[in-house]
C-alpha cells in the first residue's frame, strides 16, 4: 500500500532528536509496568547475545591477523609506521564489526523472538487505543517478510559500512568523526528494523516504513542512536531489547500521527 505523506513537525531538529531518545526511556517505563511480558522478550536476546559475544571474542582474538591481512601495503614500512597503521586497521575492523554486529544482532533477535516482540508491540498499541487500519497477517508470512526486510537492511548497512571502514584509516577523522557517523548510520538502520512490527500490523512494508520515518528523521535518529549506544554497553543489547521494541512502537505511532499518550 502507498505510504501516507506526513509533514515533519515544526519544532527544531535538536528538540526532535532529544524527543526521539525519550521514546526509549518511555519504552523502559512500559517495561517496568509489564515485567512478565518484557522478561519473555529477554530470552531471545540472551540466545542471540551468547552467539554474538562468542563471535566478537573470536574476532578480537584474530584482530591482529586481520589487521595484517588488510594492510599488505605496509609490509615493507619501518616497524613504527607499520605498527601504527595496523593498530588503526585493527580499530577500523573492530568498529565495522561493531556496527554490523549491532544491526545483525537486532535482525537475528527479532527473527528468533518474533512472537514475543510482536506481543510486546501489540500490548503497547492496545494501551494507546489500538491499531488503526490493522490487517490480519499470518504468523509465517509476517516472519518471512521480517527476515527478508532485515536482510535487506543489513546488506545496505554493510555497503555503507565499507566506506566508513576505509575512512577509519584517516588520522584523527577516523577516530572522531567516523564513530559519530557510524552511530548515526547504525541508529537509522536500527530504528528501521525495530519499527517493523507496528508497520507490518498496518500492512506496510519496508519502503513505506522508510518513507514515513524519513519525514521526521531527527526523531527517528534520536531514538535509533539512543538504542545503538545502549547496545554497545556489555549486556545492554540483551536488557534493552524489549524496551527498544516498545519504544519503536511509540516511534511508529508518532510518525503516523497517532496518539502516543494513554487516554
Automatic annotation (TrEMBL):
Question: Where does it live in the cell?
Answer: Membrane
The principal localisation class reads membrane
Q: Which residues cross the membrane?
A: 6-25, 37-63, 83-113, 153-174, 180-200, 221-245
Q: How does it sit in the membrane?
A: Multi-pass membrane protein
Keywords, comma-separated and alphabetical: Amino-acid biosynthesis, Cell inner membrane, Cell membrane, Membrane, Sulfate transport, Transmembrane, Transmembrane helix, Transport
The UniProt record lists the keyword Transport: yes
Q: Pfam families under this entry?
A: EI24
Q: Which InterPro entries match?
A: CysZ-like, CysZ/EI24
Q: Output this protein's name.
A: CysZ protein
- Source species of the chain: Micromonospora solifontis
Amino acid at each position: 500500500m502507498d505510504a501516507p505523506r506526513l509533514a515533519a513537525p515544526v519544532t527544531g531538529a535538536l528538540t526532535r532528536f532529544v524527543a526521539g531518545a525519550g521514546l526509549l526511556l518511555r519504552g523502559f517505563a512500559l517495561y517496568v509496568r509489564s515485567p512478565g511480558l518484557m522478561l519473555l522478550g529477554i530470552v531471545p536476546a540472551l540466545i542471540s547475545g551468547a552467539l554474538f559475544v562468542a563471535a566478537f571474542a573470536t574476532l578480537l582474538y584474530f584482530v591482529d591477523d586481520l589487521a595484517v591481512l588488510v594492510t599488505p601495503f605496509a609490509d615493507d614500512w619501518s616497524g613504527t609506521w607499520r605498527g601504527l597503521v595496523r593498530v588503526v586497521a585493527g580499530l577500523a575492523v573492530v568498529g565495522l564489526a561493531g556496527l554490523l554486529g549491532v544491526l545483525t544482532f537486532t535482525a537475528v533477535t527479532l527473527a528468533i523472538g518474533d512472537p514475543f516482540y510482536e506481543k510486546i508491540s501489540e500490548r503497547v498499541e492496545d494501551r494507546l487505543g489500538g491499531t488503526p487500519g490493522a490487517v490480519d497477517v499470518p504468523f509465517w508470512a509476517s516472519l518471512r517478510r521480517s527476515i527478508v526486510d532485515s536482510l535487506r537492511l543489513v546488506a545496505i548497512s554493510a555497503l555503507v559500512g565499507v566506506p566508513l571502514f576505509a575512512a577509519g584509516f584517516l588520522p584523527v577523522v577516523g577516530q572522531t568523526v567516523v564513530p559519530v557517523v557510524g552511530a548515526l548510520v547504525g541508529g537509522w538502520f536500527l530504528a528501521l528494523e525495530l519499527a517493523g512490527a507496528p508497520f507490518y500490523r498496518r500492512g506496510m512494508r519496508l519502503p513505506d516504513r522508510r518513507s514515513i520515518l524519513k519525514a521526521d528523521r531527527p526523531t527517528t535518529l534520536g531514538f535509533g542512536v539512543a538504542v545503538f549506544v545502549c547496545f554497545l554497553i556489555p549486556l545492554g543489547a540483551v536488557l534493552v531489547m524489549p524496551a527498544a521494541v516498545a519504544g519503536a512502537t511509540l516511534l511508529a505511532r508518532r510518525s503516523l500521527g497517532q496518539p502516543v499518550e494513554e487516554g
